[in-house]
Amino acid sequence: MRLYWEIVRLAFQRQLTYRAAMWAGLATNVFFGLLRAAVMIALYAARQEVAGYSLQDAITYTGLTQALIAYLSIFGWYDVINSVYSGEVAADLLRPMHYFGFWLAVDLGRAVVNMFLRGVTIMLVYALVVHITTPTSAGQWLGLAVAILLSWLVSFTFRFLVNLAAFWTPNAAGIGRFSFGFLWVFSGFFMPLRFFPDWFRAICEATPFPAMINTPVEVYLGLLTGPDLVWALTRQAMWAAVLIVLAQFVLGAGQRKLVIQGG
Fold first, then answer.
1. Residue 262 pLDDT more than 50?
2. Dihedral of the alpha carbons of 95, 98, 100, 101, in degrees to the nearest 10
C-alpha cells in the first residue's frame, strides 16, 4: 500500500511541475464557463425555474461542470494507449504491483492536483463574479465529497477500459475520441440531464456517464436529498464496481494477447 501512495505523491508532484499549462487551462475553463453561464442567462430570459433548476442553479451548474473537466479528464486521457504504443507497457507490467492499481494511483495524484488548483479555483472565481448556489448542510457537503470521489473512480475505470483498446487496435485514440464524445452528452456535461426528455434521460441513466458529472452536480445543488441521494451514491458505487470487474477481465485478455504476440 505504501508503494501506491508513493506513486500518488510522485504523480502529484509531476502535475505541479507544469504550472504554465495548469494556469492556461484554468483561464480557458473560466472563460468558457462564464460564456456558458451567459448562454444560460439568455435561455432562461424571464423564466425563474426550468426542470427544478433556478437560474442561479443553472449558472452554478456551468461552473461545476467546468470545474470537473480537468479532475475527471473528460476531454481525453490516452496515457495507457501511449504506453502500449511506445512499448513502455512491457516495463509497466513487470512492476511489483497490479497494472490497474499502478495507473489508478497515477491518476489519483493527477486528479487531486486538478481538483484543488483548477476545480476549487474555478468555483472561487465564479463566487466572485456571479451569485452561485452552495450546499447548506454538513450532510450535503458529506454527500458531495462521496459523490466526487466516486465520480473520479467511475471516470478513471471508464477511461482505463477505453485505453485498453490499444492492445487490439492501432487506432485506439480514435476509439477514445468517439467514447469521450458520448461521455460529454450522456453525462450531463453539455446540458443538465433534467432538461432533456424523459426517454433520453432513461437512456443516459442506463450508462455510467451520469455518475461522473450529473450526480455530483445534483448533489451539490441540493436536488438529491434523502433516499434519492442514497440511491444516487449507491448507483455510483455499483457502476464503479461493475467497471472495475470489467476492466480486470479486459486487461487479462489484453495481457494474454500481448504475450502471444511476443510482447
1. no
2. -100
